Amino acid sequence: MQPVALPERAATPSEAASEPAAGAEPAPDPAGQLEKIWETPKTLWGELTTVDHKKIGVRYLVTAFVFLVVGGVEALVMRLQLAGPNLRTVSPDAFAQPFTMHGMTMIFWCAAPILSGFSNYLVPLLIGSRDRAFPRLNAFTYRILGRFGVPRVDAQGR
Ligand code: HEM
After folding, report:
1. What would the pLDDT profile of 116-129 be if each residue is shown by its tens digit?
2. Is the CB of 106 within 6 Å of ligand 1?
């Protein structure tokens, strides 16, 4: 059986009113413009300077994991010293340093970034917003974590 060609439907009055007249400027698309302004360019520089809450959230979680390992190594030094009574595995000073560093690493560079990671990733999705309230400030905050976390571990024992 031959398919029946239906006559083209005439535009409803509201559709006709919303269509731009021939030769007129296309209607502005604020949502599309916003997307364009804030999207991450697919370049290395784009990745380094991204303000995308999902990317920053994942980076927080990866960073937290790295510092979990660092804090674990610091705990290991303590455990080696405390494996038996009166061991002389490390000097009192060399024990005190990983002890202090372990507490700080675990709380400020592991536990707190885990919360930041999940909240960065999930909250904008849950509340239906495009990104965090201050995306650039949010990206800057993540940078501070690494900026002070790495030299802090590196300074141990000096
Ligand atoms: C999320 C936070 C933390 C995690 C996941 C964590 C994890 C660990 C782990 C796995 C050990 C090794 C345990 C063992 O070898 O028996 C350890 C030991 C230790 N942690 Fe933490 N820790 C955290 C926070 C802290 C804080 C805030 C402090 C205090 C400032 C602290 C002080 C110590 C001490 C003194 C030891 C040595 C105890 C021992 O080995 O007998 N930890 N920690």
Report:
1. 999 999 999 999 99
2. yes
Which pTM was predicted? 0.77
* Spatial distance between the Cα atoms of 51 and 45, rounded to a whole number of angstroms: 12
CA of 65 to the centre of ligand 1 (A): 16
Residue 70 CA to its chain's centroid (Å): 20
- H-state helical runs in 12-52: 13-18, 30-38, 44-48
Annotated domain spans of the chain: 58-154
Q: Which of 101, 100, 114 is nearest to 63 (CA)?
A: 114
Measured from the CB, is residue 153 less than 6 Å from ligand 1? no
Whole-number pLDDT of residue 19: 62
